[in-house]
Structures are given as structure tokens and as C-alpha cells.
Known about the structure:
By secondary structure, this protein is of the alpha/beta class. The protein contains 17 helices and 16 strands. InterPro entries: Aminotransferase_I/II_large, HTH_trans_reg/aminotransferase, PyrdxlP-dep_Trfase, PyrdxlP-dep_Trfase_major, PyrdxlP-dep_Trfase_small, Tscrpt_reg_HTH_GntR, WH-like_DNA-bd_sf, WH_DNA-bd_sf.
Amino acid sequence: MEKFYVEFIEENPKYIQLQMHIKKLIDKEEVEDGEKLPTIRALSKFLGVNNVTVVNAYKRLEIEGYAVQKMGSGTYAKRKLLGRCFRKEYNETFKKLSIEELRQSIDFSGESTSSSYFPVQDFKEILNEVLDRDGAEALMYQESLGYKGLRKEINKEFWSNELTLDDILIVSGAQQGIDIVAKSLINVNDNVIIERPTYNGAMMVFNWRRSNIFEIDMEEDGVSIEKLQEILKKNRIKCFYTMSYFQNPTGASYTIEKKKKILALAEKYDFYVLEDDYLSELIFDKNMEYKSFKSLDENNRVIYIKSFSKIFLPGIRIGYVITPRRFREIIQNSKIHTDISTSSLMQRALAMYIETGKWKSHIELLINEYKTRYCFMENYLREQLGDKVDFMSPGGGLNFFIKLKDSVKKDCKELFLRCRDRNVIITPGVMFFKNESEGIRYFRIGYSQTSIDKIKDGIDTIKDILEE
């Protein structure tokens, strides 16, 4: 009975705290599959709560598939598909599907813009111009910071020449940027704060560094300042990893006011903000103003990471990092030790693409195309699934993060498997949580790889499965 003990806190209802505690026991195999749970009367007496608290906790466990009630016998634990097995199952889905099969499926899992919008002819002409201009030099290793011409264009186009070129380090995408920053700054048992839920790739990096990870729930305008302060008062934090616009997976964007408060806390408590500027180009809401953490930073507290891969083409694999000068050398050395240099030809081509104004035109095209899909998906979700799910409208980006209502008996793992059987690929919410059980009621769908007809068919399929 002792393992079922819960030290209740005031912020959350007791039945939810009890439900979450028992779920963790089941996930960690401290409660075995098929094991009988304590009787309602015995557990309520042991915890000092009324019977209704235990009844409601057991009901929620049953709804989420973590328990089975047998009439006249009691309630029994039911182990869900194990996290590692399910992650393998999810990843195997994409290994087994050929490119052609994936195209024929309704792919709601995309995190980057569609290759169908990539300006092949324009980029081909740019590549030829670069080769004609630079010859074999275009294929040689660049200086350690990256091609000077690209750093110059980044500074001019995105930072109004407010930086020095030495402030900008070219990397092979955001994932490498996160990796080299973590290698440079984070040691074993250093404390790191992340958003909950968050990008799985960043979680993997911080786990690999064997850091102590603190999570803060995302609100509609970023993490809770109160929760952040609670952690900062009790722990010495090294850095806070955040996706400032259209956070992956929730789609939430930080308000400027909240960014300023976080930056003030960074100065007060001596930690750094690792900003992953994700898809901020795709703002559809005219009332949303773009200002990154970095643009508001007055105390050199922000390490800024930006990738061109998500918005342009994943195969390009180019991004950049801006760091406080005190970390410049160690982060640059970490990059050199990782891969020496990012593709010289692609750096030069991207520089020319930006310089000629083609980049700006391409982004305008993407905004027009994806805003149409965004509005359709938003409206069709409300129309078809409004009684079954809850979601926030992010105002941009490429995804919607959806929560199943309590009345829905299925969870995201079962929904993923059933959808996959009908050639619809969604991303289950467990992929974005450190503790997978917390993501069991969520899933993410995106419109980057789908036409409006496919969006309609895919949502209709999800509706059918949820109604079965």
C-alpha cells in the first residue's frame, strides 16, 4: 500500500494527482500489468481523502486505458504499450515507407515546408552563378565561422547590421546548433530548464549531457513566470531552452512582455536563454509582432539559434548561432570539432539567394500558401472534431497541437496506430514529453505536406476512428 502514497499539493485537484501518481507506477512497472489496485475504501482511508477522490482517479485511469474495472471484483492495472517499444514503432513507420508511399499517404507529421514549394529553377540558376563566379573555390572549406558573404547577408537582412560578423557562426541546422551549445556549456549534473512539452531532439541532447532537467508547462503565451521563479529560487540554473515562436509542438508564441520578464530573471539569477527561433517567418496573425528574445536582450543573456532548413529545405542543412562574446571561442571550437565546416557551396548559394531578394519573395509565397491551409484546417477541426478535442489556434507556423477530451476513450498511441492503418500519419503527443504518460491525451497534426483535399480526408478519418 505504501507505494500508492501521494503527498498532495494545493494547486491541482487531488483526484488528478492520484491518477498521475498511479499512472507513473504503472509506467515504471512498480504496479504490474493486471495487478489489482487497492479498494476505494482502503485507499481513501490510507490517503485521508474521501471515496469520491479515489473513484474519480480510477475513472480517469480507465478512460486513458491504464485500468480495467471488473464488476464485483475491483479495478486492475493495465500496462500501456511501453514507451521505448512505441517510439521504435513510430520511427519504424517512416523507415518502412518509401518516399512514394509517404506521398500517397496523408502525412500530418511534417515539421518543415513542402519540397513542392522549393524554388528549384531559381536555386539551380543561383548555383550555376556561384560556380561561374567562384569556380573550385566554392567547394573548398570555409573559415571556421562560415562563409563571410553569408554572415554578411544574415547580418544585413535579419539584424539590420547591428551585429559584427564575428558574432555569427554558421552551423548545419538547428539540431547541430543545440548540440554544440550543449557540449560547450552544459556539464554533468548542470541544471537546465525546458518547456513541457518540447522538441524531442533538444531533450535528447540534454539527456545525453546528463544534465538535470526541470520542466515548466507551456501556457498560451509561453511558460509560467511563477513556476519559473519557483525553480530559480531553489536551484542554480545554467540555461533555459525555449522556442520563442510557434513552439514545437504546442504552437504557442511568447508575448513580448513575458520575454522581457524572463530576460530580467536571467540577469537576476545568472542563467542563459537558449533561443531556438522556429518558423517565426510564418506569422499569419497580423496582430502578432515579431521580436525575438535576442532582439530584446540588453545583458548578453541570449544564445540565439536559427535554422534555414525548416522554412527552406531540410536538405540544405544550414543555420546559424549568435552567442554572447564570453562563449564565442568555446562554441566555435565545439563546432570545428564536430564537422570542421558546413557545405561551402550551399552557404554561397544561400548568400546569393538572400542578396538577390529571392529569399524574401519565397517567404511571401509560403505565407500566402500556408495561411490558406492553416485557416481551412482550423475551421474544419472545429467543425468535425469540436466535441472530441480541444486545441489552441497558434496564428502561424505549420501545426496544431490537439488534446483529446475526457469523453474520448482512445489515447494518442492507439489513435496513431489506427490512423496509420488507414494511411494517415499523425504525431502522438508522447513524443514530446519527458514523462510519456503526460502526453497520452495529445497529438499533433500539420498541414505542411498536405493539400486541402488531403486535410479534409485526414480529419474525416480521425473523426471516424474516434467515433468507433
